[in-house]
């Protein structure tokens, strides 16, 4: 194995590819195309490659730099811009992607103009907000009107379909009823344009619930999936779904112990605020054995979302560059220089793959 520097993330490409194949197969069985979302792992091109090798046809990100990296890396795929575009990036959206999600007429006109300038046809999916309250048309009549404008007046845009996003801000569950609302909008548009839409895009990882349950409404034919493939964690943890057919160790975080000492558990002296201006509560449990590891909030955000692989390790807290662990209950006689391994959640994955201090290694 290659020499490691710490902290690092190790990404198991074989396990990732397995997860892609498994989710893709289940989606395809139900007439659904799975789009590979890479933004959760900061768009690493080798992650995009596993999506493609595992059967996905399209790669999606909210960030165009990540898409550009994948193209430069040589990943041949269709690309989708997930975040409704900024007016200031429409030229790049057209240059780098074949599809984008949209919710503003002004942006659509700008995209059309940019596409004309680059002599391209660009596919757009109009987003409906079904109550999650992030992006998307709230007024569905307005949405139908805009669809008609795209169809009839914007020569360099192709109205590909409609979509929705659920569970990201408003924590709304993609129930069959919710998704039926989207299909209703699609069919209203189809009646007016007198043709079928290419895609009805029914959401992200949370919509995999419908695939697992086998009750996805008939016409939903696209899901945009990131977390559910890379980590396979949320649906099991928060919704009780059986995700045992997926590997949970695709992305692991490793950090090195830099100090081990017995210390009091309650700070000594006048207590004010910590490095981030917070006033935590400290419980006095007497003298405890503690370890410091060389990674901190700058690298991963919230220390309490780290899950140590070894037993008998408790996260006490962190500052920018240090994480403090209680290892009193650990039986493995840990030493300075030892490396501890952690499972990650979505937020931790986003941060650590995006931190210059955290090296990335691939296992294949
Ligand atoms: C991030 C994102 C996704 C994928 O989300 P996951 O939960 O990682 O599957 C899908 N659609 C949109 C619009 C997104 O922004």
Helix percentage range: 25-40%
Briefly note the CATH topology name of the largest domain. Answer: TIM Barrel
Question: Which kinds of small molecule does this entry bind, naming each only once?
Answer: pyridoxal-5'-phosphate
| Number of beta-strand segments | 16
Quickly count the helices.
Answer: 12
- Global mean pLDDT: 96
- State the domain count: 2
Report, as a whole number of angstroms, the end-to-end distance. 11 Å
CATH class of the largest domain: Alpha Beta
What would you call the structural class?
alpha/beta
In terms of per-residue confidence, which ranges show pLDDT below 50 for 5 or more consecutive residues? none
Which overall shape is indicated by the principal axes computed on the Cα atoms? elongated
CATH homologous superfamily title of the largest domain: Alanine racemase
Strand content: 15-25%
Name given to the CATH architecture of the largest domain: Alpha-Beta Barrel
Radius of gyration: 23 Å
């Amino acid at each position: 194995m290659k020499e490691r520097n710490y902290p690092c993330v190790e990404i198991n490409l074989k396990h990732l590819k397995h997860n892609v194949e498994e989710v893709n197969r289940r989606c395809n069985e139900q007439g659904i195309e799975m789009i590979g979302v890479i933004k959760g792992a900061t768009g690493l091109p080798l992650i995009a490659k596993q999506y493609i090798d595992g059967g996905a046809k399209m790669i999606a990100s909210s960030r165009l730099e990540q898409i550009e990296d994948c193209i430069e890396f040589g990943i041949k795929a269709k690309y989708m811009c997930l975040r409704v575009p900024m007016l200031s990036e429409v030229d790049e959206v057209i240059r780098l992607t074949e599809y984008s999600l949209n919710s503003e007429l002004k942006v659509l006109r700008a995209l059309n103009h940019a596409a004309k300038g680059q002599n391209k046809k660009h596919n757009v999916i109009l987003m409906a907000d079904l109550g999650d309250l992030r992006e998307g048309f709230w007024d569905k009549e307005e949405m139908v009107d805009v669809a008609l404008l795209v169809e009839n007046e914007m020569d360099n845009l192709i109205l590909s379909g409609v979509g929705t996003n659920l569970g990201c801000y408003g924590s709304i569950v993609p129930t069959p009823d919710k998704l039926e609302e989207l299909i209703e909008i699609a069919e209203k548009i189809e009646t007016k344009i007198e043709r079928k839409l290419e895609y009805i895009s029914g959401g992200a990882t949370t919509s995999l619930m419908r695939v697992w349950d086998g009750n996805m409404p008939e016409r939903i034919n696209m899901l945009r999936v990131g977390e559910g493939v890379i980590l396979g964690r949320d649906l099991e943890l928060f919704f009780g779904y059986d995700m045992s057919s997926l590997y949970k160790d695709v992305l692991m975080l490793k950090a090195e112990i830099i100090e081990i000492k017995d210390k009091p558990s309650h700070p000594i002296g006048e207590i004010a605020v910590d490095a981030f201006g917070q006033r935590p509560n400290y419980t006095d449990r007497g003298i405890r054995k503690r370890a410091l590891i060389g990674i901190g909030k700058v690298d991963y955000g919230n220390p309490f979302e780290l899950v140590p692989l070894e037993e008998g390790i408790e996260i006490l807290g962190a500052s920018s560059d240090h994480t403090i662990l209680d290892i009193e209950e650990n039986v493995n006689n840990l030493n300075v220089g030892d490396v501890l391994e952690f499972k990650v959640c979505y937020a931790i994955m986003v941060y650590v793959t995006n931190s210059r201090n955290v090296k990335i290694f691939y296992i294949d």
